Amino acid sequence: MAAFGTGADRPLYGRSGSPGFKFTLYAVLSVVTMYLDQRQHYLEHVRYVLQAAAYPVQLLVSSPPAAWRWLKTSVQDRQALRAENARLNAQQRDLELRSMRFEALARENAELRGLREALPPVAEKWLPAEIVSIQQSGLRQQMVLNRGASNGVFKNQAVLDAHGLIGQTIHVGPWSAEVILITDPEHAVPVRIDRTGLRTIAVGSGASLALPYLPANADIKVGDTLVTSGLGGVFPEGYPVARVVAVHRDAVQPLAQVRAQPLAQIDSDSEVVLVWFRGNHPAAPGAAETKGPGGDLKSGDPSHQPQRVVHPAPAAAAAVAAPAAAAAPSSAPAPGTAAPPPAGHQP
Amino acid sequence: MIAESRVRLFLSAVVALALTALPLPPWLDVARPAFLVLTVLYWSINAPRSGGVALGFFAGLMLDVFQGPLLGEHALALSIVTYIAVREHQRIRSKPALQQALIVFAALISYELVLVIIDGWTGRPVSSYARWIHPFTGALIWPPAAAILGYGAGRRA
């Protein structure tokens, strides 16, 4: 590599090293940078600084469209404004009616589940953010928002619009945040089919989403809505993601080919919402993690605990409560009744 | 002389970066030339002492921040292309515009090839034929772009 610097043109570059030497230096530097960045997060600080440096350019670039939007709204005539006002009023009335119904349903649901009080919504607070720039080139589906660490934005934060899930933040700068859209080929979101409850994973495929892991006989059809399943630890449960637009079942393929269109209307949005979720809510991504098998295993291995109690139990249980055990399926009630004692005696 | 050309170089790089980041409709976005790469190539050929490989590296680093999933990827690709351009600048400079455009085309293809190889190594097999369109538009835009970038300098010389 260093031999490159010993060319005939060397005398030209006496001042600051030969280009061959400099090239070797910078090439090694880039490879080291790539290595560190690939091996996860050694370069978060470097990125933070570079993102701050990039922000003025991004802002500059986004100013013509922003100015155009501002101009368009400021020269809108009275008629159009009045029409929009009427439309928004109607929409607000609709939403109020629906939220009234929603509160009643939430209360009813809480009663049905035997909870003492209705749970607050899982979203704790949210922050509107403007889209500074957006990149939708097929290879990369990402955008930059005008909120960053100074607004409390953190990495892997969920981003929504009024219609559904948009994506999550991947790099946070001081005043800006980069968001990877759910349609990016490197992004996957755990979803549930709302109609059937079937869980799967929606992978970005450029302009739309693909569901590559569904067997050919899975119960899914065009028009089904996908909502977040709450697994994966980033998105809370129950937010709308996409609608199925195409289902292909090939007789020779073991898997169905399903395509879904995101519900979020990124093309027409100029503002999106960053959401903070309540950590201790059952529907929250964090709660799902501690509630799930992984979390339970940490606090006493329940899938093994009941069995350890049940295994010696049959002799005693059969002797003491023989009629009950005979009437009911023998193993089904046992874990349920046996579960509390070990949990109590464990600590 | 060198200081003045550095100012021009810096300004043109910022403008090129802005053009690279400018939001465009998808059908136009696919054909968007790599403005910053073209600018870096121009300065490497016409003022190899004021920019050089360092310009390529830092321009590539900014590209990484704007559009790279991996920090250092564009930096490496652009360093390589810049180095070759700086090395061969006298030979390239003496060629007529049409041949220069062909050389730039080759440079853009090799730039994209390095990116594809790195993408493959790092487990990002995102292959799309769309990524091979920009070398063509880049070569097409080279003669006018070079004329614009060389406007002030050409008059003085």
**Oligomeric state, counting identical vs distinct chains:** heterodimer
Indicate the low-confidence ranges of chain B by residue numbers: none
Rough outline of chain A: globular
Question: Whole-number average pLDDT of chain B?
Answer: 85
Q: Number of DSSP helices of chain A?
A: 10
Q: Could you give the count of β-strands of chain A?
A: 12
The portion of residues forming beta strands of chain B comes to under 5%
- Indicate the structural class of chain A: alpha+beta
The total of helices of chain B stands at: 9
Arrangement of strands in the largest sheet of chain A:
1-2-5-4-3-12
Major beta-sheet overview of chain B: none
Helix content of chain B: over 70%
CATH architecture of the largest domain in chain A: Beta Barrel
Can you tell me the number of structural domains of chain B? 1
Relative strand content of chain A: 15-25%
- The fold-level CATH name of the largest domain in chain A is Thrombin, subunit H
Mean model confidence by pLDDT of chain A:
75
Could you name the CATH class of the largest domain in chain A? Mainly Beta
Number of strands of chain B: 0
The ordered H/E elements of chain B are HHHHHHHHH
Features:
heterodimer, A: 347 residues, alpha+beta, Thrombin, subunit H, 3 domains, six-stranded antiparallel beta barrel, six-stranded antiparallel β-barrel, 12 strands, disordered N terminus, B: 157 residues, mainly alpha, 9 helices
List the helices and strands and how they pair.
The complex is a heterodimer of chains A (347) and B (157).
Chain A: H1 19-38, H2 44-74, H3 78-112, E1 123-136, E2 141-145, E3 158-160, E4 165-172, E5 177-181, E6 188-193, E7 199-204, E8 209-210, E9 225-228, E10 240-248, E11 257-262, E12 271-277, H4 285-291, H5 293-298, H6 305-310, H7 313-320, H8 322-327, H9 333-338, H10 340-345
Antiparallel strand pairs in A: 1-2, 1-12, 2-5, 3-4, 3-12, 4-5, 6-7, 6-9, 7-8, 8-11, 9-10, 10-11
Chain B: H1 2-21, H2 26-30, H3 35-46, H4 52-67, H5 73-87, H6 89-93, H7 97-121, H8 134-149, H9 151-156
Helix pairs in contact in B: 1-3, 3-4, 3-5, 3-8, 4-5, 5-7, 7-8
